[in-house]
Design goal:
Strand order of the largest sheet: 2-1-5-4-3
Number of strands: 5
CATH topology of the domain at 5-115: Beta-Lactamase
Largest sheet: 5 strands, antiparallel
Order of helices and strands: HEEHEEEHH
CATH class of the domain at 5-115: Alpha Beta
Distance between the termini: 80 Å
Shape: elongated
CATH superfamily of the domain at 5-115: Dynein light chain 2a, cytoplasmic
Number of helices: 4
Length: 159
């Protein structure tokens, strides 16, 4: 479901570079399919995605209100698990003991914004705008050169 695998990998690389609190992270979709991970082997990434999905499901089952659950932190004496969901895309990360929760959530949300693929219509319109801009620039340069107005003449002083 996630088509932005390269973006997900880059987002996680950027995340671990800016956040010293993140120990491991994984990006996955609502079906549990892993798009990218900081963990070397796939079984560990799948395990973290599955556990994070289970935490979301459990929290969703006990929450009150109609709005969907978008973020979650589970803290233990040894560390924390943070999960952020935006639509069908989820990012989960583990940290050490006593993380700065607000900062971790901010970093995860920023990374998730970089991962979210654009809707197909938006990708097409952006590509069309880019192609049109390229054509317009080449044609406009010729038109501007040919359509230059002569410099205004100075009027002689009436004194």
């Amino acid at each position: 479901m996630l088509q932005a695998t390269m973006d997900a990998e880059q987002a996680l690389a950027d995340l671990t570079e800016i956040s010293s609190q993140i120990q491991a992270a994984v990006v996955f979709d609502d079906a549990g399919k892993v798009a990218a991970s900081t963990l070397g082997d796939s079984p560990r990434a799948d395990e973290l995605a599955h556990a994070a999905g289970g935490l979301l499901a459990a929290a969703e089952a006990v929450k009150t209100g109609e709005s969907p659950l978008t973020q979650l932190e589970v803290a233990t004496g040894e560390g924390s698990v943070f999960v952020v969901r935006d639509g069908k895309t989820v990012i989960a990360a583990t940290t050490g003991n006593n993380p700065t929760a607000g900062l971790v959530f901010y970093d995860l949300k920023s990374a998730l914004r970089n991962v979210k693929p654009k809707p197909a219509a938006e990708r097409r319109s952006a590509a069309a705008r880019k192609a049109a801009a390229g054509k317009k620039t080449a044609g406009t340069a010729k038109k501007k050169t040919a359509a230059r107005k002569p410099a205004p003449r100075k009027k002689p002083d009436a004194s």
